[in-house]
Design a protein that fits this description.
With about 325 residues, the chain is α+β, with helices and mostly antiparallel strands. The chain is built from seven helices and ten strands. This is SPFH domain-containing protein.
């Protein structure tokens, strides 16, 4: 919408670069162009504002396929007004000189024209296409047909309208039909999911079996190594017993040899001691054989005295003393009267 300012009974219009302004003053075209700015009097001015930028028109309508299924078509048409003078002559783009607001609804008229034209070509295409084909290839087919139909529509160039692009967003059936169509695919997907689940379970079972086999193999290997360990320990024990027995035998032989040598030494010592004692005894006997009887008696008395208990004092009668001295070959002592 143009920007209109008031000054002392005059009006000043300032338009956007994308708006084409046509100013007629008393039936004569005074200004014609985009992005204009000028002064005018509202009582003698006739203004038209035609947008020349690209505009998007979204549309949605129902159609019926060859197998009598209702579908919804969503499309977007991009258009622009290439000839503002022709468009202003065919459609009401006039604006209020005081407010700059359109007096009519020209864009709605253009939208109706484009929508009905596109819908007509869409219905013609889908009426000859079954639902499955419309859902699979209908978007491209409808887009090409609508673009070609709008390009061949004579009213559009006559109105100064140029179609820039046509886009078909979606072709969708009714909700119940869409759910029914999705069922086989969902079943297929579910079957694939079940198959994947079964395969995953089979893989899991196989892995568990492999793990169990590995554990069993580990246990068997452990048992075999324990058997080797027990066997080695038995061998070591036998070797240790043999070594201990051999060591005990060596110690016993050494002890026996030591005892034999000790016995021999003791026997030899005993023989030497006996011979010495015999020789000493023989010498003692020889000495006693050569000594007089009185000396032997005296020695016997001495030995006897050595073995008798201690006698502090002894009293002998003269007769006993005389007889003893006589035996010893000594004179008897004289007696006093």
């Amino acid at each position: 919408m143009a920007d209109i300012a008031r000054r002392f009974g005059w009006r000043h219009l300032r338009s956007a670069p994308t708006a084409h302004i046509r100013h007629h003053k008393r039936g004569v075209l005074a200004h014609d162009g985009a992005g204009l700015s000028f002064w005018y009097r509202s009582l003698s001015a006739a203004l038209s504002e035609v947008p020349v930028n690209d505009r998007e028109l979204a549309m949605a309508f129902h159609a019926r396929t060859a197998d009598f299924q209702d579908v919804t078509v969503q499309a977007t048409v991009t258009y622009r007004i290439s000839d503002p003078a022709e468009a202003a002559a065919r459609l009401d783009f006039s604006v209020d000189p005081d407010s700059g607001v359109w007096r009519g609804a020209p864009l709605e008229q253009i939208a109706t024209l484009l929508t009905e034209t596109a819908q007509q070509h869409t219905l013609d295409v889908l009426a000859r296409t079954p639902l499955s084909g419309a859902l699979v290839d209908g978007v491209a087919t409808v887009r090409e047909r609508v673009a070609a139909g709008l390009a061949d529509e004579p009213r559009l160039p006559a109105t100064g309208i140029e179609v820039v692009a046509v886009r078909v967003v979606a072709i969708r059936p009714e909700a119940e039909v869409e759910r029914a169509l999705r069922t086989p695919a969902r079943e297929q997907i579910q079957q694939e999911a079940d198959r994947a689940t079964y395969e995953r379970r089979a893989v899991a079972v196989e892995r568990e079996r492999t793990i169990a086999e590995n554990e069993l193999a580990s246990q068997i290997e452990l048992a075999r190594r324990e058997e080797q360990l027990v066997e080695q320990r038995g061998t070591n024990t036998r070797r240790e017993a043999e070594e201990n027995a051999a060591a005990d035998g060596v110690r016993a032989e050494a002890e026996a040899a030591r005892k034999v040598r000790l016995a021999r030494a003791e026997a030899e010592s005993a023989r030497e001691v006996g011979a010495a004692r015999a020789e000493s005894q023989a010498a003692w006997l020889r000495v006693h054989g050569e000594v007089e009887a009185a000396t032997l008696h005296a020695l016997a008395a001495t030995r006897l005295a050595e073995n008798l208990p201690r006698i502090d004092s002894l009293t002998l009668s003269p007769d006993v003393l005389t007889g003893l001295l006589t035996k010893l070959g000594r004179p008897a002592p004289e007696t006093r009267a």
